[in-house]
Structure formats: structure tokens, C-alpha cells
Amino acid sequence: MTHEAVATPDNKPSSSHVKATLPAFPAWNSRDTTWMLSLFGTAVGAGILFLPINAGMGGFWPLVLMALLIGPMTFLAHRGLSRFVCSSAKEGSDITEVVEEHFGVGAGKAITLLYFFAIYPIVLIYGVGITNTVDSFIVNQLGMESPPRALLSIVLIMGMMSVMLAGEKLMLKVTQFLVYPLVGILAFMSLYLIPDWKMDALMVMPSAVDALGTVWLTIPVLVFAFNHSPAISQFAVAQRREYGVHARKKADQILRNTSFMLVGFVMLFVFSCVLSLTPAQLADAKAQNLPILSYLANVHNSGFVSYFGPLVAFVAIVSSFFGHYLGAAEGMNGIIVKQMRSSGKTPDAKKINRFIQVFMVLTIWAVAVINPSILGMIEALGGPIIAAILYLMPMYAISKIPAMKEHRGAISNVFVVAMGLLAMTAILFDFIK
User: Fold this and answer.
1) Domains identified in the chain, total number
2) Is 125 contained in some domain?
3) Alpha carbon of 101 to those of 63, 337, 395: distances in Å?
4) Is residue 29 part of a domain?
5) Is position 7 within any domain?
6) What average pLDDT does the chain have?
7) For position 364, which CATH number holds?
8) Longest dimension (CA), the chain
9) What is the 3-state secondary structure (H, E, C) of the chain?
10) H or E stretch at 238
11) Do the beta carbons of residue 313 and residue 294 sit within 8 Å?
């Protein structure tokens, strides 16, 4: 006797029998929690520490509109990228391989290059951010003289790189160890600032044009601040390996919970910081190129904020650096390997990895010493390029790739494309303004 599905009159297997043969959808478990925290840790870095500065300068009410938009933006965009990676016919394919599989070798090279440049500037930003955070702490909280910038930056960069070089297991352990206190202190700091809220900000009502203009200009920083796309490739591969037929649905569930967690913690923090400072102070923080918590530590008369503010900034940058470094290294490795293979050469994995490590250290160090505007880099490079990869590419894939045709026609696709285009064109609006 066979165990095939029973045919119905229209020659289709009965739906009840098909459902019975599928394994039950797995319940939420500790692995899912670990992934949720890892994605949260990847997102909570330099973006969140500079988001209150950019978002708050436009006033309270544009910030409310941003809070309503960012949840759906974050979930739907990352879900699209995860589904794109899961659409591969070959299990274990990362994003650079999936791009080549669906779009061909030429397009694969171009998108891999774009993927690298979406993440690489963020790694550079962390070199600047951690140097400025520690330098500000030494000068303002410890009362010491500022150390030579070149020396301070290389010590900090090599400290972060040493964890990466020690291996992925140690890196994941350190990230998990950092995320728990980060979540706790972030929440506590948000609540601690409530007595300092200046409610007169609620009375200032900008015109509709000004409010929408502020939101448009801030969308690249929103995209950057909530971005955890560097971890999505390996996340999607892990879900396919772990959950098989339920991989996409389980990935959607984890990404939805991550988005809820991010919006809850991050936007509470942003509102609390913005209401605690005046627009003039936020502008001053931007001019000093400091994370919001380092600036709060310098102007707040509380010992708690003075010492814990820089600590949170430091932990947030370090925890996010690891995820973004992995993404940038993955992208650069893809570029080199594809180029060598097209030239008929055999890639040497060890030599490539060593080259990537040296390249990363030297360029992060050089940019940290130069100290460019972090918000300027986010607005000009980070947000727009991330939007192209995270918001637009998966939506294009849905419209073109047969493996993703089941996702066509959803209104959410239009929303994601619109937000991606706004993020990419915000810099043009800034020039016009």
C-alpha cells in the first residue's frame, strides 16, 4: 500500500492529507530568542546614538510620524531580504551567491559590490564613533587630557578586531553578553530622563510641508538606525538549515518580534532624549560629532548619566560593529572571489581573509583619525545605499524571479518601494532645500 496523497476529483491531493504530512510549525525556542537578540544588537549601534540628534532637530510631531512609519518599514524590508535569500534553490547560499543565481554573473558582481558599499561605510562610522565616545569620556568625565587621536583609535579598533579574529563563537558570546545589559540600561536611561522632559516641545506645531520635509530628510537615518541587514544573509541560511519547509515562516516570526523590540526600545529612547534637550543642544551635539549619550553626559548634572551614558554608547557601538564587520567582510570576499574566478584564478581563502582584515584595520583607522561628520556619512552614504539593497532589490526580485512570484501584488511591496525611494532621494531634497 502506498502512502501517496489521495487524489480528489480535480486530480489535486486533498488539502487535509497534505497538511497532515507536513511537520507542525515549531514553537518559539531559545535559538529564536538568541537570533532576535543578535539582530537587535546588530541594529542598535551608531544609528540609534545619532538618530535622536537628527530626528529631534525637526521637533516633536515629525518624530511621532517617524515612529508610526519605522515599524512597518523595518519589518517589511528585512522580511523581503530574508525571503530573497531563502528563495535560492541551493541550501546554504549566502546573499552574494543568491544574487548570482537569480540575476547572472554580471549583475551578481554589481549587486555584491553595492552590498559591500552598503555596509562598509557603517564599519568606518564605528571607528569614528568609538574614538569620539572614548575621547569625550577621558576629557569630560575623567578630567584628563585628550590622548593622541591616532594612538587612541588604533588601540580601540584593534581591541574590537581581536574579538573578531578570535573566532565566530567568541564573537557571538561577546555580542550576547553585551546585548542584555544594553537593553536594560537603554530602557532605564529612557525612563531616568523622564523628569527632565520639556513638554513645551509638544506645543510647537510645524506646518505640514515642514513636518513632511523633516521626515523625508530623516528617513535615511531611520533606515540606518534600524538596519540589521548585514546579519540577514547568515540568519536566513541558518533558518533554512534549522527549520526546512518552515524556514520562511519562522524567519518572518523572528523578524517581526525583532522589529517590535527595536521600535519599542529605540523610539522610547529617542523620545526621551529629544524631550530632555532643546533643539539648540541637539544642533550642538551634531556639530561636536558626538553620540547623544556622550553629549547628555557632558551637559547633564547627574553622575549616573555622566558615567553610564558613554558606557551605553561604547557597548552599542561594539555590539553592532561585529555584525556589520561580518557583512562587510562577506561582501568584500564575494567581490574578490568572483573577480578571481572570472580571471581564471583559484582563490586562496586564507590569503583573502588576511587581506580583508588588514584592509579593514587600515581604512577604519585612517577614517577615525580624519574624523568626518558621522551624520553626514549616514545621510550621504549609509542610508541611501542600504535602501537600495534592503528596500528596492528584494522588491525587484519579487517582480522578476519565478521563485518569489507568490509574493507579488501585495500592497506592502508598494510601501517598501516608496520608502526606499524616499531614502535614496532625501539627499536631493536637502540640496534643493
Assistant:
1) 1
2) yes
3) 41, 15, 17
4) no
5) no
6) 83
7) 1.20.1740.10
8) 84
9) CCCCCCECCCCCECHHHHHHHCCCCCCCCHHHHHHHHHHHHHHCCHHHHHHHHHHHCCCHHHHHHHHHHHHHHHHHHHHHHHHHHHCCCCCCCCHHHHHHHHHHHHHHHHHHHHHHHHHHHHHHHHHHHHHHHHHHHHHHHCCCCCCCHHHHHHHHHHHHHHHHHCCHHHHHHHHHHHHHHHHHHHHHHHHHCHHHCCHHHHHCCCCHHHHHHHHHHHHHHHHHHCCCHHHHHHHHHHHHHHHHHHHHHHHHHHHHHHHHHHHHHHHHHHHHHHHHCCHHHHHHHHHHCCCHHHHHHHHCCCHHHHHHHHHHHHHHHHHHHHHHHHHHHHHHHHHHHHHHHHCCCCCCHHHHHHHHHHHHHHHHHHHHHHCCCHHHHHHHHHHHHHHHHHHHHHHHHHHHCHHHHHHCCCHHHHHHHHHHHHHHHHHHHHHHC
10) helix 232-243
11) yes
Q: Who contacts 422 (Cβ-Cβ below 8 Å, separation ≥6)? A: 216, 219
Task: Give me the percent of the chain exceeding a pLDDT of 90.
Answer: 21
pTM for this prediction: 0.79
| 22 vs 301, residue with greater confidence | 301
Backbone angles phi, psi at 7, to 5 degrees: -80, 135
Q: Which amino acid is at 182?
A: L
**Closest of 70, 44, 120, 124 to residue 373, by C-alpha:** 124
Query: How far is Cα of residue 294 from the mean position of the Cα atoms in its chain?
Result: 21
- Tell me how crowded residue 114 is: count the other CB atoms within 10 A of its CB: 15
In a domain, 19, yes or no: no
Which residue in 315, 264, 247 sits closest to 31, CA to CA? Answer: 247
Q: What 3-state DSSP class applies to 24?
A: coil
7, β-bridge pairs: 13
For the record, the C-alpha cell of 122 comes out as: 557603517
Beta bridge partners of 13: 7
CA distance 384 to 390: 10
How far, in Å, CA of 371 to CA of 287, rounded?
12
- Per-residue pLDDT tens over the stretch 22-49: 678 888 988 888 889 888 887 877 667 7
